[in-house]
Write a structure and sequence with these properties.
The chain is built from 23 helices and 16 strands. It is α+β, with helices and mostly antiparallel strands. Strand 5 (109-111) and strand 6 (114-118) form a beta hairpin. The protein folds into four domains: 1-17 and 324-473, no CATH class; 40-198, no CATH class; 200-320, Orthogonal Bundle (Poly(a)-polymerase, middle domain); 486-637, no CATH class. A six-stranded mixed barrel has the order 2-3-4-9-8-7. A five-stranded antiparallel sheet has the order 12-11-10-13-14. The protein has a two-stranded antiparallel ribbon with strand order 15-16. It is globular and about 85 Å long. The chain has helices at residues 2-13, 25-28, 31-36, 142-146, 156-164, 190-198, 202-221, 232-245, 256-273, 294-303, 306-314, 333-345, 357-382, 387-399, 424-429, 478-481, 487-500, 504-518, 541-558, 570-585, 588-604, 607-610, 617-629; strands at 18-23, 41-54, 66-71, 79-84, 109-111, 114-118, 125-134, 167-170, 184-188, 325-331, 411-419, 436-440, 449-454, 466-469, 529-531, 566-568.
Length: 637
């Protein structure tokens, strides 16, 4: 049991080589403002073992990993190329460009440097941008650090804090460059922007909220949404410039309408002139090569008229009240997803582990059947084969859901509460320490997201306000989009169970069904498959042979005291069990197709980013041993 307990603890606390933080409106503005005009959940991701440094700079002393050199020669301001800092043989800098490492599948929706994913609720999407961290403030942005600021914003302390955190680079070419140029990277100051927005006053936050709403109306009115070049970032940049250049009186509550109209007028002038400098890099024109529709400029001019101001004044939303609290209600399974995501990728909003007892209880239930299946499979090998039937049932339980379509089945809902002035991501992640669970019987809206505000002030305009975001039926059931986080890991063990017990048809059936699920699931990467020598007997002889070889290599290189484990993608292992089972039933045509799918998934698998590039080594070497042993049958493969 100690082996299983250690294996379980490893599954619970495992973290990837990637780190992530939420950026954009979901992590910057009050939840009430975000839910009124929801946009993407923007996620910045970067490898902990890769960093980029300016020319002639050295990486931080404590850094161990791949170092890239930033080269901006011959490129537009704000854009660079990344080159390996040194050749692997220790020679001088080389000229090979470091290309974007954005991993995409055919069904991914690529949006600039990010991959956009539908999460099931039509109001929200999830934008994931892979980036490279630069631990130093870029030389091109030195002017931002030292320029004169008449009104003292941002403060010197905040400037130093931002500069010390460095910046990021995302895979994005200049708009005037060919789309297939995968060598250009763009500076990203997402973390700096978050700190700047957090320093805004309530009035400045409100003005930005109104500008976001106006921007949404501009885009809605356009003839072709995809052609519209204006985006929220343009309004945020205008806010940064205004916060620096305008006096405190400009932002007073009595002047908010004039403030909004003046900012819009400044933007219209920038659009007309075709010059809109980046806040951190003034030489970088953020509308260079971007089409701004005429109707947008016309709308801004109209809002600056007396008639336009009267319309705008009548539609201004209320300011958020600091006394208000917001309560989010969502399917309980999302609590485990949020917790695991924070654990795996080091999301900084995560609450202290000691205060998440209810989440731990849900997490224990999540892994319970899987660990019992593994335990009984071990007993079947050492004591009695009758334990196989018990193991099989536990494995099936680990991937099966209660039929929530039945009207008499009670469902649990997750309740998260926090001050309404907190950002949406803070409401989610920092509330995990005090979650509440509610039970509902009415199944009509069982997968919807809802939010409700409450306030101690009787005249508060946000008191009793509610939002509802319906589940989009085009995604099918909730459990096909948001499976249990351990679903694919459990399915891999189930498929392996049938392979070991000789039920090859069931092994193939399970593997085939999970391949279809994986294309639609939103959480297929939260549990790696962890192999260790102590549990090697659960797998076939090919896996055992390769695992033994890998253990021996590590033992000789690192000494006998090193704990050995090898991690890979559960779906990749599922593909391996499918190939093995198809060989056993003699369907050589399907074997050929399965091997092609194995190679395709190996090249596109996100675990190659989150774990290590050779994560496929164990199942691939086992697959090669299998093919070599069947050489006479596989001459055509």
């Amino acid at each position: 049991m100690e082996i299983l307990n250690r294996h379980r603890r490893r599954l619970e606390t495992f973290s990837y080589n990637y780190r992530a933080f939420f950026a954009g409106s979901s992590s910057e503005i009050p939840a009430a403002y975000f839910l009124t005009k929801p946009t993407d959940f923007d996620l910045m991701m970067y490898r902990t073992d890769v960093c980029a440094v300016p020319k002639n700079a050295q990486p931080p002393r404590n850094f161990r990993g791949e170092v890239l050199t930033i080269d901006s020669q011959g490129l537009s301001a704000g854009f660079v190329r990344l080159k390996p800092h040194k050749l692997r043989n220790g020679g001088s800098d080389c000229d090979q460009d470091y290309q974007k490492h954005l991993q995409t599948f055919d069904y991914d929706n690529v949006n600039g440097p990010a991959v956009t994913t539908d999460v099931g609720w039509s109001a929200f999407t999830f934008d994931k941008a892979y980036s490279v961290r630069c631990p130093y403030w870029p030389p091109e942005a030195q002017e931002w650090q030292t320029r004169y600021r008449r009104h003292g914003w941002p403060s010197k302390y905040l400037i130093n804090q931002i500069v010390n955190e460095g910046c990021f680079l995302v895979g994005k070419s200049h708009p005037t460059c060919p789309d297939d140029d995968d060598t250009q990277w763009r500076y990203s100051f997402s973390k700096a922007e978050m700190r700047l927005v957090a320093s805004w006053t309530d009035s400045q936050m409100y003005v930005y909220h109104v500008l976001r709403m106006i921007k949404s109306e501009f885009v809605k009115e356009g003839d072709d949404k995809k052609k519209t070049g204006i985006c929220t970032y343009h309004f945020k940049t205008q806010m940064f410039w205004a916060c620096e250049e305008k006096p405190a009186e400009f932002w007073e509550d009595c002047n908010l309408l004039t403030c909004i109209c003046e900012l819009l007028k400044d933007m219209e002038q920038r659009f007309t002139s075709g010059d809109f400098p980046n806040y951190f890099l003034p030489d970088c024109n953020i509308i260079d090569g971007i089409f701004i529709e005429d109707h947008i400029r016309d709308a801004i001019r109209m809002l600056d008229s007396d008639f336009g101001r009267s319309i705008l004044k009548s539609q201004l939303p209320p300011k958020v009240c600091q006394e208000c609290r917001i309560s989010l209600s969502l399917p309980v399974e999302m609590a485990i997803y949020f917790h695991l995501f924070a654990e795996r990728f080091g999301v900084p909003f995560q609450t202290h582990r000691s205060s998440i007892d209810k989440v731990k209880q849900l997490f224990d239930e999540e892994l319970g059947d899987l660990m019992n299946g593994i335990y009984n499979m071990q007993l079947a090998k050492t004591q009695s084969e009758s334990y196989y039937a018990i193991a099989e049932q536990h494995f099936w339980n680990s991937i099966t859901y209660v039929d929530t379509m039945c009207s008499d089945v009670e469902m649990q809902r997750l309740i998260l509460k926090r001050h309404i002035s907190s950002s949406t991501t803070k409401v989610i992640f920092e509330s995990l320490g005090n979650i509440e669970l509610s039970t509902v019987v009415d199944q009509r809206n069982r997968w919807d997201l809802t939010a409700l505000t409450s306030c101690t002030k009787s005249q508060c305009p946000y008191a009793g306000r509610s939002w509802k975001f319906s589940w989009s039926e085009e995604h099918g059931t909730f459990y096909k989009k948001w499976m249990k986080p351990s679903h694919f890991l459990s399915a891999a063990y189930l498929s392996n169970f049938y392979l070991k017990t000789g039920n090859f048809d069931m092994c193939i059936e399970v593997a085939n069904e999970e391949r279809g699920f994986a294309r639609k699931a939103s959480n297929s990467e939260l549990f790696p498959m962890i192999f260790c020598p102590e549990l090697a007997s659960l797998f076939d002889e090919n896996i055992q042979e390769v695992l033994g070889l890998l253990w021996l290599c590590k033992h000789l290189l690192n000494g006998g005291d090193t704990i050995f484990e090898f991690c890979t993608c559960p779906l990749l292992f599922l593909n391996y069990t499918r190939i093995q089972a198809l060989f056993r039933v003699g369907d050589m045509e399907l074997v050929k197709d399965a091997i092609s799918e194995f190679k395709l998934h190996r090249g596109m698998c996100s675990f190659g980013l989150y774990l290590y590039s050779y994560h496929y080594l164990l199942p691939e070497m086992a697959c090669r041993i299998l093919i070599r042993s069947k050489r006479d049958e596989t001459m055509f493969i």
